[in-house]
Amino acid sequence: MSAASFRALHDRLRGQVPWGTADRRGALNHITPERVAAAAGEVRLGRSVTLAAPLARSAPDNPEPGTRHMKRLPGEPSDVPGVSFAADQLVMNVHGDVDSHIDALCHVSHDGTMYNGVKPDAVTSQGASELSIEDVRNGIVGRGVLLDVARLRGVPWLEPGDSVSAAELAAAEAAQHVRVGPGDVLFVRVGHRRRRAEHGPWDVAKSRAGLHPEAMAFLAERQVAALGSDSNSDTAPSVVEGVAFPVHVLAIQAMGVHLLDYLQFDDLVPACEAAGRWSFLCVVAPLRLPGGTGSPANPIAIL
């Protein structure tokens, strides 16, 4: 995709954002109270399924792994009488290439601005004064839809470098007898996690499957509220001249769509197959991290 074509797509999608210059929630505005109430009707089996992967160890795709260490063991002397505690501490890079997380709208700058014209200097060494993950403090609750593109192609996974087109998203809808609608949280499976499990980790910063930038027009047309993937939604190497993460730019900076990266659908796919449907109630509750550019996330699908 040429730089000029990307610029035209960016400007077109940015021009479709309807909420005014003061908006800080982006596409989450598509989730209305009425749509949340309707999404609750997706719960028929009372079964909940995680979409998050366990915290990963050091690997070629995870040079800065999250670390968890024990601060206190139950048998150690306690400074309070009659009770002993176990306690641990977690430190992690929120935006790594393995651990499941959500990106805030302050995560991406392009051409000198973040979403809705907010200047990058709103993010300092103390964190973000605007567009932080704190804007999602009430969570994301709505109808989730999983489109399994690897299943559509009849393969266990898309090979690194492959891109998912808007036409394939529509074809996956038809094959799965589901339709993405306004306010939905869209999840796209490319099979990244399965390939990693069967072939081992690799340098995904250089090579991974994702969505083609033109697929963002599908999200805009359907008024999707948030996008998640078992990859990070961007193909590597980039298909756009001079822009390393074109889907991140279009989704976050142009459209105000929060991204959920490096999820896992190994539990959700068989649950959807057993239920005979690919839609569900979805709940995403980021941590309260004032000024945070993102957060670890454990999205839950409820069927």
Summary?
The protein is an alpha/beta fold and 303 residues long. It contains eight helices and 15 strands.
Describe this structure in words.
The longest helix has 13 residues, at 3-15. The protein is of the alpha/beta class and 303 residues long. The model has no long low-confidence stretch (mean pLDDT 96). Helix 1 runs parallel beside helix 7. It is 23% helix and 19% strand. The chain has a nine-stranded mixed sheet with strand order 1-15-13-7-9-11-12-4-14, sandwiched between helices. Strands 2-3 form a two-stranded antiparallel ribbon. Strand 11, helix 7 (246-255) and strand 12 form a beta-alpha-beta unit. It has eight helices and 15 strands. The two termini are 39 Å apart.
Number of strands: 15
The largest β sheet comes out as:
9 strands, mixed
Mean pLDDT equals 96
SSE string: HHEEEEEEEHEHEHEHEHEHEEE
Could you tell me the radius of gyration in angstroms?
20 Å
Give the proportion of residues in helices: 10-25%
Strand content: 15-25%
Supply the helix-strand structural class. alpha/beta
Give the arrangement of secondary structure elements.
Layout: H1 3-15, H2 33-39, E1 48-50, E2 67-72, E3 87-91, E4 101-103, E5 123-124, E6 127-128, E7 140-148, H3 149-153, E8 163-164, H4 166-176, E9 185-189, H5 192-199, E10 210-211, H6 216-222, E11 226-229, H7 246-255, E12 258-261, H8 268-275, E13 279-284, E14 294-296, E15 300-302
